Amino acid sequence: MNFAIELILSLLLLLGGSLILIGSLGLIRLPDVYTRLHAPTKATTLGMGAILIASMLFTLFDQGSLSVQQLLITLFLFISAPLTGHLLAKTAMHQRLKQTDKTKNAELIETARDRKAPNQSTD
Amino acid sequence: MSFVRSWLPRPFLSLVLLIVWLLMNNAFSLGHILLGLILALGIPLLTEPLQTQQVTVKRPLKLIKYIIILKWDIVVANLAVAKLILGPTKALQPGFVAYPLNLTGDLPITLLASTISLTPGTLSAEVSKDREWLYIHALDLPDEQALIDAIKQRYETPLKEIFQC
Amino acid sequence: MLEITLNLVLVMISIALIMNIYSLVRGPSLPERILSLDTLYINSIGLILIYGIVQASSINFEAALLIAMLGFVSTAALCKYLLRGDIIE
Predict the structure, then answer these.
(1) Cα dist. A2→A62, A67, B7, C8 in Å?
(2) Which residue, among B127, C38, B75, B83, has the nearest Cα to A81 in the 3D structure?
(3) Which of A55, A80, B161, B164 is the most buried (most CB within 10 A)?
(4) A-chain residues within 8 Å CB-CB of B96?
(5) Which of A2, A8, A84, A114 to mutate to test the interface with C (most CBs of C within 10 A)?
(6) Contact at 8 Å (CB) between B132 and B98?
């Protein structure tokens, strides 16, 4: 394997590793459950994408055969990440978890919980 | 025509199933193609009573363009969120937004909600029962109207064109 | 160079896993614990893939695929349970 390919692989792997680390850090650092939902659904998903591309390139150049299973894993993660986020946000609202005091329009949680249309006067 | 319709109710679903089967096995041999074909024809037939009528894609080319824009936005969004997480968390201004939907139909709304979840600092949380409002949580929300306009212009309008609804 | 990077990324993901376990234990609410568990399994997929590159074998990818699918289903089932008190209605 020549130097250029190793460089690209290393950069992709480092990007993926740091994004995964940042996603997990966000899970600890952010103040409430709604903001915490953002960290894993976004940072971690792209981090996994980078690692999967690196893994695919590695098999391509190391063994000379294109392995497409990683593509399927990437696809699956990208489909499932928003669904997980949506379900967890629903659950958090259902349990009436506390949001941080700074949250704008916090009264929308109640209307969203009952799946009603918001009051027009707030617009 | 009706013969094809009754034995191949969802050609697109069958194609996707076949491709996923081949990807999963990581092989392109005759045996796998045959087995995949049996599954791709059998599963839509068995699940046909469960399907509800969905709107279909009217502009496939626009859909491809939309996916490319989305891919780019996902990368940008993730880097932006990473920056927000690493920065001072006290300075964040999280908030909820009620987003008025123009789209109709379950599939376009689902696609829009997933798009919103994957892109800059926003997460779709709930849709109202009358399917006219989408509740969004934003990680950093300086201006609500700007966010609504950005989503409307960048994602909802193309989706409306793709599905013509 | 690739070997050093691989080791570094393995360390990074391991730290991320430890952080996830910390937030899993800390909670404080159930949805947050589910979220930590969800992140935990996604990160473990990353670990398996890096290990696959280290070993230069593709035998591990099927395990990663299985974790991706079953993990999503279990997260969805847990959320459903908290929402309705029942998984299959």
Answers:
(1) 11, 20, 52, 21
(2) C38
(3) A55
(4) 103-106, 108-109, 112
(5) A84
(6) no
Helix axes B11-25, B30-47, angle to 10 degrees: 140
Which residue, B149, B163, B146, B151, is CA-closest to B70? B151
**B136: three-class secondary structure by DSSP:** strand
Tell which wins on pLDDT, B54 or B96: B96
Confidence at residue A41, expressed as pLDDT on a 0 to 100 scale: 78
pLDDT band at C17; cut points 50, 70, 90: very high
What pLDDT score does A121 carry?
A: 45
Q: By CB neighbour count within 10 A (0-12 exposed, 13-18 middle, 19+ buried), where does B138 fall?
A: buried
At A57, the amino acid letter reads: L
Q: Is the pLDDT of residue A82 over 80?
A: yes
% of chain C with per-residue pLDDT over 90 = 9
Cα–Cα dist B24/B33, whole Å: 12
DSSP A7-76: HHHHHHHHHHHHHHHHHHHHHHHSSSHHHHTHHIIIIIHHHHHHHHHHHHHHHHHHTSS---HHHHHHHH
Q: Which of C29, B72, C64 is nearest to A56 (CA)?
A: C64
C-alpha angle C41-C45-C51 in degrees, rounded to nearest 5:
140
Q: What is the pLDDT of residues B64-83, one digit of tens each?
A: 888 888 888 888 878 887 88
Inter-axis angle of helices A45-62 and A3-29, to 10 degrees?
160
Query: Could you tell me what percent of chain C has a pLDDT over 70?
Result: 96
Q: Is the pLDDT of residue B165 over 70?
A: no
Both tokens of residue A58? 């590695």
Question: Minimal Cα distance from A76: which residue of B?
Answer: B20
* Lateral strand order in the sheet of B133-138: B95-100, B133-138, B122-127
Query: Which of B76, B123, B129, B145 should one mutate to test binding to chain A, selecting the residue with the greatest count of A CBs within 10 A?
Result: B123
Of the ranges A29-43, A49-63, B101-115, the best mean pLDDT one: A49-63
Cβ neighbours of C31 (radius 10 Å) = 25
Read off the DSSP letter of residue B10: -
